[in-house]
Automatic annotation (TrEMBL):
It comes from Occultella aeris. It holds the Pfam family SBP_bac_8. This is Bacterial extracellular solute-binding protein. InterPro entries: Bact_solute-bd_prot1, SBP.
């Protein structure tokens, strides 16, 4: 059946997963039951307690983690006698500030860390450097799935607790698809056919905003690489670390960027995308000026705000990268908490993680954000809007973001910065991959 002639589509109907991810803007919550959200940077202070089951635990969280943990603060304090002093900020600011706090000895007892080696405050980097407490003996460590463990562990030791998992999806406008009789594409060829049908209707096929940095460029890279590279070769990261291959030498990386630019060259992306904001790209999808867009799950609530009918105006799919529909993988990302190796109240911090690991609390946290539970404890989250991607999750057809096991964050930053030049035809794919290889070769700080 042609992907552009059928009226059929996934109909949201049961449980779902994701939505968290990096967010923007501080969340302000009133203090209650030991919950304090201050603006002092989350230092440990003098009230952290002795670690004997009472006192205070200081926490430095992302705004999303703050939202997820809010309904659990009072129950945790009632159960443990430990109060929480929480500071929350947006992830981009947090990564910078946490590095300063760790070097100055003012970091909180517990804080968010990035997965793998994806930034200078990632689990792999800080765990290797002795900045994080070894949590391997915690009971919940056995409930970490293998994909997440690769990003939380260093040399067989667990340094990070996964509070949730997030994902990358392609959202589409239901009214536009209904009007044109389009079916959600499940292969690359079908995606190109749907894009052409949208273009022929006078619409932008895929709304794409790259102003203010190429944040959304990386989403396409991770989606395409997940299916084209890591699906066929899950050992790719190990091979790159061993020097057996590289961005330049591995043909799949060239294919990833070639397919990304194919969407640009066929006119399927927003015209002048380098000057279009991500917010405008979402508005274009909501108004029907565009048919599809790729975004992180954290962007779905913002997308819904642009439509009078909210989530009902959209559905989602796992963006295909090849012509075997069964081979499509969906990138997912864990969201981590870690305990400061120099925590003033390490026992209280451990108690918090043990509390968050209880199945009922995993469900409460995940439900607050509509995210995929971080631990494999049988928790379920009700969010029917995300039903279409559940078959991939249930079948284990997920893959980590490609950058998480790169040895340092500069590889990603080079991809983002030089990726804009690539999009503008100022450099070639070979130029970009050579630059990424140079940063990769510097290793882990």
């Amino acid at each position: 059946m042609s992907p552009i002639t059928s009226q059929s589509r996934f109909t949201p109907s049961r449980r779902a997963l994701l939505l968290g991810g990096a967010g923007f803007g501080a969340l302000t919550l009133a203090a209650c039951g030991g919950f304090v959200n201050d603006d002092d940077g989350g230092g440990s202070g003098d009230e952290s307690g002795s670690g004997d089951g009472g006192g205070t635990v200081t926490a430095y969280l992302s705004t999303e983690q703050n939202t997820g943990i809010e309904p659990l603060v009072e129950p945790f304090t009632a159960d443990s006698g430990v109060e929480l002093d929480i500071t929350s900020v947006a992830v981009p600011d947090m990564n910078q500030q946490l590095a300063v706090q760790l070097s100055s000895g003012t970091a909180a007892d517990i804080f968010r860390v990035s997965p793998g080696y994806s930034s200078n405050v990632a689990a792999g980097v800080l765990g290797s450097g002795g900045d994080l407490l070894d949590l391997s003996d915690a009971a919940w460590a056995a409930s970490i799935d293998d994909g997440t463990r690769a990003l939380s562990d260093v040399d067989g030791k667990t340094f990070a607790f996964p509070v949730a998992r997030n994902s990358l999806v392609m959202a589409y406008n239901l009214a536009v698809f209904d009007e044109l009789g389009l079916e959600p594409p499940t292969t690359w060829t079908e995606l190109l056919e749907v894009c052409q049908a949208l273009t022929d209707s006078g619409r932008t096929a895929i709304s794409h905003g790259l102003s203010g940095g190429a944040i959304y460029l990386q989403f396409y890279v991770y989606i395409l690489a997940g299916t084209l590279l890591y699906g066929p070769n899950p050992d790719l990261d190990a091979q790159m670390r061993a020097g057996e291959t590289s961005f330049t030498d591995e043909p799949g990386w060239t294919e990833v960027f070639t397919k990304y630019l194919e969407l640009r060259d066929k006119g399927y992306f927003t015209d002048g995308a380098l000057g279009v904001s991500p917010d405008q790209a979402m508005q274009d999808l909501a108004t029907g000026a565009a048919g599809m867009t790729v975004l992180s799950n954290s962007g779905l609530p913002a997308l819904y705000e642009y439509s009078e009918t909210g989530a009902e105006a959209f559905s989602i799919l796992a963006m295909p990268a090849g012509d075997d529909a069964d081979a499509t993988l969906m990138p997912t990302a864990p969201d981590f908490l870690a305990v400061n190796a120099a925590a003033a109240n390490p026992d209280g911090a451990r108690a918090l993680l043990e509390f968050l690991a209880e199945p009922a609390n995993v469900e409460t946290y995940a439900s607050a954000l509509a995210v995929l539970p971080g631990l494999d404890v049988g928790a379920q989250v009700d969010n029917p809007a995300l039903e279409p991607v559940l078959p991939l999750v249930d079948a284990g057809r997920t893959v980590s973001y490609a950058n998480y096991l790169w040895p340092n964050g500069d590889v990603q930053q080079t991809m983002l910065q030089s990726g804009q030049q690539l999009y503008a035809d100022e450099i070639t794919i070979a130029d970009l991959l050579t630059q990424m290889d140079a940063e990769y070769a510097k290793g882990t700080p």
